[in-house]
Amino acid sequence: MIQPHDLVANLSNNATTFAFPMEQLIKVAAMNDRESVFRALDAGADGYLLKRTKPADLRISLLEVINGGGPMSSQITRHVIESFRC
Fold first, then answer.
1. How confident is the model at residue 23, as a pLDDT?
2. How wide is the angle at C-alpha 76 spanned by C-alphas 46 and 73, nearest 5°?
3. What is the pLDDT of residue 38?
């Protein structure tokens, strides 16, 4: 079983991909620094939400990822946009 603190590291591991080929992961975290965000996305996270996300918004985000979307909190989206401007 994958430990929660090892999940981001294990996302980029091919064995994890083969063990859970249809799984989608939304990282929910307190940290919104660029390094943490891009590390999770680079490792294969399908979305990134902050822990303060309201339950109703979390439900919408889960439905969004199931339907092929990439849900992100607005602060996370800002990091992604700014990364293209650098």
1. 82
2. 75
3. 93
Tell me the sheet residues that pair with 29: 50
Question: What structural domains does the chain harbor?
Answer: 4-85 (3.40.50.2300)
Show the tokens assigned to 34.
């660029």
Positions in the chain short of pLDDT 50: 1-2, 15-17
Q: How far apart are alpha carbons 15 and 69 in whole angstroms? A: 24
Write the DSSP assignment of 22-82 as a string of letters.
Answer: T---EEEES---HHHHHHHHHHT-SEEEETT--HHHHHHHHHHHHTT---B-HHHHHHHHH
User: How far apart are the C-alpha atoms of 83 and 68, rounded to whole Å?
Assistant: 23
